[in-house]
Amino acid sequence: MKTDLNKLKEHLFTLKDSLEVDKIILDKNISALSSIVERFYSKSSPYQERVKYFTQAISQLKILKKDNNPIYGFSTESIKNEISDLIDNIVEEIDNIGLPANDLKIDKSINITNNLFQSQTQSIELTFVLDILKDELSGKQIKEIKEIIEGEGEVSIKKEKLINKLKSFGENVLAGITASLITNPNIFTQL
């Protein structure tokens, strides 16, 4: 079935015109764009990767019940603008070189497979912890903490020294570190 490129471009422009900053509407726009991109572009396409990013970003904002995520530097406004730019890029590509060759072969046989597999994985990327510590502590304070951790002795003694050292930095520093950790989406969503 041959695709009418003008109708496709018209549909993309309609989608672009309906973009709003509202998370619910943006989520619907992302779903519609995802359908188009999945239909015409391979899974390894940069367009598909970008749509996956938009889906994850809007999901985080919905979980946080906010319109922006300052830790990762995106907001509903920035997502809206990036989607608009992506639509412009797709339309420009269609104008210049058309749609990519679609090598999909339709298999008319019916295959039924039923696999049950349940797995639960929890992992937290700890780079954000280092970023928080670098934001809240001075270089000298970080150096003092490293000396305690890298020093000789048992873990329990190191832990006690570390607690005392953190207390010596002041109540505001400890409160800042704790607040930054708790409000991080990687931690917040696990509470």
How many helices? The count is 9
Number of domains: 2
Strand order of the largest sheet: 1-2
In percent, how helical is the residue content?
55-70%
The largest sheet is: 2 strands, antiparallel
SSE order in H/E notation? Answer: HHHEEHHHHHH
**Arithmetic mean of pLDDT:** 79
Beta-strand portion reads: under 5%
Query: Which of globular, elongated, flat, extended, rod-shaped describes the shape?
Result: elongated
Which ranges are low-confidence, i.e. pLDDT below 50, for 5 or more consecutive residues?
none
Q: State the secondary-structure class.
A: mainly alpha
Rg of Cα set = 24 Å
Q: Please provide the count of β strands.
A: 2
Give the terminus-to-terminus CA distance: 50 Å
Entry keywords:
single chain, 191 residues, mainly alpha, 2 domains, two-stranded antiparallel ribbon, 9 helices
Walk me through the structure:
The longest helix is centred in the middle third of the chain and has 22 residues, at 76-97. The relative contact order is 0.10. The protein starts with a helix and ends with a helix. It is elongated. It folds into 2 domains: 5-97, no CATH class; 127-188, no CATH class. It has helices at 5-17, 23-40, 46-64, 76-97, 127-136, 139-150, 155-169, 171-183, 185-188; strands at 68-69, 74-75. It has a two-stranded antiparallel sheet with strand order 1-2. It contains 9 helices and 2 strands; from the N terminus they run αααββαααααα. The chain is mostly helical and 191 residues long.
